[in-house]
Design a protein that fits this description.
Helix content is 35%, strand content 17%. It is an alpha+beta fold. The protein has a seven-stranded antiparallel beta sheet with strand order 1-22-21-17-16-11-10. The protein has a seven-stranded antiparallel beta sheet with strand order 9-4-3-13-12-2-23, with helices on one face. Strands 18-19-20 form a three-stranded mixed beta sheet. The two termini are 29 Å apart. The structure holds glycine. The site of glycine has 10 residues, from loops. Glycine (GLY) binds next to loops.
């Protein structure tokens, strides 16, 4: 019997007898060729199992904070808020106070799912041409590396609003911030993903004295084995805990953030921070092979295009083609392309542009797109414009999933955009600042850092939210929560989330295998089929024979997920990064 053919239920029975929650199992893919010893995070073949709650995140310390909060009687939202604050300390490249994101919340008793949009906004003084150089071309340095790149952060008010509206009521916001403050003040070991990411960010962080003070020891970033202590961040967290989220948006902390942004050439004011508000949105919904898909609506493109692609795929027998087969991968790639073409044209901030969500997610629309797919040939190069190779870095954003004993769940993706944002810690606050303004279209038809083409619908405008690809998602079966998933990965977030769902629903993989399986990505432009290591050379040759411009690259995403079935929770953290952890109770 092959393990990947076992449904999660059978696996659950098998594993309940043989594995304590949190146990690690044999590697399914080779570890990354890094010199550091593999710790608790080798690739996993089987999910972790539990019955009373599960947290899966990109950092073990943060996962444990979430499990601790569940143990204190907190619900999934309480745990998720605590994880969100903890990741700002333990995963500074993506966890944040100075960025923004999206939280999907499912409330089991109310049978209600809501979407909290705490995406950054453009400052009030932003203009459509602010990222164009004198020649009228996009100025990528300005939109990624200077103070102009910084959007008004949404994370603190977003997490606080989640707690206020949907927390259990048993724990205060201060209770949920306390573990993060403790980690920041006591310090955390530089190991795992932190030790991997700091050297790569050395140039970015090293240009700002306030960032050097936190992340450097002498002339170098903190080495593996050192301790990262963040006293200013601890003080900021304590201030928020004592005075509430407004203390981040008004008063000394806000003044310091605005001063740091302006000192770096930006336009954000203290008034922009004071004006920031999260939005409660209605999720976007679709179905796939009888399961209900509930995901993030605009200003994320994630949910809309996840459903659009699934609608196209529903017309194919993917299971019959076989997981990892050239036929299945070709079908996936050809279904991805029209969705990304639509993204470039139609998607933007819904407060500024009419996004045709119903049309894009309609089964009948997908049928018209499906008709154009040739099962034997990739769409010709003439149908797409040539482009730059895509960046393969995958750790800019972070996703975590939480389910509690009552079936309440959180699917949260948040980000600084690039790894460590612009690399600038606002002096005296410990807060790293985002470069989310690059997610706007600097010019219609121009590409952003992820090679994504954007249109007028995503132009820079005062107080607008830049278009995102973040795709925090729930899958329901017969009205009951079945899967919580999502991922970082820039433009690849949508296709990563898609493939976890397809791996579970079509290919019947257990959750750990669904998360670990090699992934592909095609975003229409540039005309490149990105493939992770691990797809067989035979398959790649068949894809090339069909006309795909295949490029094999590094890792894609970090899909920290939870599955619920028959009272059992299965958790899987992504083996692509060190230090990820799914843990239950
Ligand atoms: N910053 C990446 C995204 O929001 O899609």
């Amino acid at each position: 019997m092959r393990l990947h053919s076992l449904p999660v239920r059978a696996l659950g029975l098998l594993l309940a007898l043989s594995q304590p929650a949190g146990a690690q199992t044999a590697p399914v893919v080779p570890p990354a060729p890094e010199p550091a010893p593999i710790q608790s995070d080798e690739a996993r073949l089987l999910p972790v199992l539990a019955t009373r709650g599960m947290v899966s995140s990109q950092d073990a310390l943060a996962t444990r904070v979430g499990v601790e909060i569940l143990g204190k009687g907190g619900n999934a939202v309480d745990a998720a808020v605590a994880v969100g604050f903890a990741l700002a300390v333990t995963l500074p490249r993506a966890g944040n106070l100075g960025g923004g994101g999206f939280m999907m919340v499912h409330r089991a008793a109310a049978r209600e799912t809501v979407a909290i949009d705490y995406r950054e906004t453009a400052p009030a003084a932003a203009t459509a041409d602010m990222f164009l150089n004198p020649q009228g071309e996009p100025d990528r340095a300005a939109s990624t590396r200077t103070g102009k790149a910084v959007g008004v952060p949404g994370t603190v008010r977003g997490l606080a609003e989640a707690h206020r509206r949907y927390g259990s009521g048993k724990l205060t916001l201060a209770d949920l911030i306390a573990p993060a403050e403790k980690l920041a003040r006591a310090g955390i070991p530089v190991e795992s993903g932190l030790a991997d990411s700091l050297p790569r960010a050395s140039g970015l962080l090293g240009q700002w004295p306030s960032s050097r003070a936190v992340f450097f020891e002498g002339d170098h970033v903190l080495p593996r084995g050192a301790t990262l202590t963040q006293r200013d961040l601890a003080d900021t967290l304590r201030t928020i805990a004592e005075q509430g989220p407004d203390a981040f948006y008004q008063g000394p902390i806000a003044d310091k953030i605005a001063a740091a942004v302006r000192g770096a050439g930006g336009i954000m004011t203290a008034a922009d921070l004071a004006a920031y508000r999260p939005e409660i949105r209605t999720p976007v919904r679709g179905t796939y092979r009888g399961y209900e898909i509930v995901s993030m609506p605009p200003p994320s493109s994630g949910g809309v295009h996840l459903i659009e692609i699934l609608n196209i795929l529903e017309g194919y027998d993917l299971a019959g083609m076989g997981a990892g087969s050239a036929r299945a991968l070709h079908t996936l790639a050809e279904a991805m392309k029209p969705a990304y073409a639509d993204r470039a044209t139609w998607l933007g901030d819904p407060s500024r542009t009419k996004v045709p969500v119903a049309g894009l997610t309609a089964k009948s629309y997908a049928a018209t797109l499906r008709e154009k797919i040739d099962p034997e040939r990739a769409k010709s190069a003439a149908e797409v414009k040539a482009g730059d190779p895509l960046p393969y870095e995958s750790d800019q954003t972070t996703h975590f999933s939480v389910v509690d004993a009552e079936g309440n769940a959180v699917s949260n993706t948040y980000t600084l955009n690039f790894s460590y944002g612009i690399g600038l810690v606002a002096e005296g606050t410990g807060v790293l600042l985002n470069n989310e303004m690059d997610d706007f279209s600097a010019k219609s038809g121009a590409r952003n850092a992820y090679g994504l083409v954007g249109g007028e619908a995503n132009a820079v405008a005062p107080s607008a939210r830049p278009l995102s690809s973040m795709t925090p998602t729930f899958v329901f079966r017969d009205g009951k929560l079945f899967l919580v998933t999502g991922s970082p990965g820039g433009s690849r977030i949508i296709t990563t989330t898609l493939q976890v769902i397809v791996n579970v629903l079509d290919f019947r993989m257990n959750l750990a295998q669904a998360v670990a399986a090699p992934r592909i990505h095609h975003q229409w432009q540039p005309d490149v089929l990105m493939a992770e290591e691990g797809i067989s050379p035979d398959t790649l040759a068949l894809l090339r024979a069909k006309g795909h411009n295949v490029k094999v690259g590094a890792t894609s995403g970090s899909a920290n997920s939870v599955m619920a079935e028959d009272g059992l929770l299965a958790g899987a953290s992504d083996p692509r990064q060190r230090g990820t952890l799914a843990e239950g109770r």
